[in-house]
Amino acid sequence: MSELSTFNLTDLMRWVEEETGCVVSFHELLPLSDIPALKLPGEMYGHHSPFCEFVKLQGNISRCLSEKQKSLARSKAGRPFENICRYGVWDLVYPVVFEGETVGVLYLGGLRTGQTMKSINGKTYSGPKIASLSAEKKIQLKHWGKFLADFVILLLACRRRFGEKIPRQKKKEFYAHAADAFIHNHYREDIHINDLAAQLSCHPNYLGRMIQRAGGKSFRRLLTEFRVEKARPLLAVEHYTVTDAASACGFSDSNYFSAVFHRLTGGAPKEFYRRYRRPK
Q1: Numbered ranges of CATH 3.30.450 in the chain
Q2: pTM
Q3: Is the separation of the CB atoms in 47 and 129 below 8 Å?
Q4: Within the chain, which residue ranges are assigned CATH 1.10.10.60?
Q5: What phi and psi, each to the nearest 5 degrees, are found at residue 101?
Q6: For residue 121, what pLDDT is reported?
Q7: Residue pLDDT, tens place only, 81-130
Q8: Which CATH number is associated with domain 182-277?
Q9: Topology (CATH level 3) of domain 4-168
Q10: Which of 127, 144, 245, 278 has its CA 20 to 30 A from that of 94?
Q11: Cβ–Cβ contacts within 10 Å for residue 43, how many?
């Protein structure tokens, strides 16, 4: 990047991931995504390591959200701390404190501790290897946590200096963006608007109205459309059946998936994959 004006939090978080081999995510407590340089792609608002995705796919999303809420509550004290989830994954939790208030929380880690990784609901993780925790890695992540937090603080301070207000009131666009990020991270799982409402500490009915007002679509509609869009490329893969594609994208019933797919695309799933698997 050639100019300072092009720097944004997304690039910096990705650079830290590449430098450390860890996973970095950010939870905003104020609607900082209203600031262009602080707006992140959906997956970076949640733990997006392959292992965390595996855990949530085994029906543990409620437990994961509960642990997230506990860490967010603790972060209000404004001091970094270490956290190990019940599945043995370590994170450095780094609060971003601006003018005495915790405005967001960085999570750096996704590292494996010394304990043996057990099967979850009878299934064993077989994805990419999880990097191991070490004393050196802890020091490295504390350095990068401060670096990322300082970037956010500096940006907010510059806005304040030039008379720009720090976003506080959560507009309907904030809730719509939160819904998009939540769906992006959890569409394979059995999720509901109540799960997102609990994460945002608001009533599900209020959240539903804000999402509807922002884009004219309900949470359920957004989720269904996203799942169908993710299913389309799977149907072109030879070893995926309609049932496989439906299951991989969060549909528990392949008949319901077929009906929804036809309604949204104008064609049946079988017609779609026959067309794309036709010999050249």
Answers
A1: 4-168
A2: 0.72
A3: no
A4: 182-277
A5: -125, 135
A6: 72
A7: 999 988 888 999 999 999 999 999 999 999 888 766 667 777 788 788 88
A8: 1.10.10.60
A9: Beta-Lactamase (3.30.450)
A10: 127
A11: 14
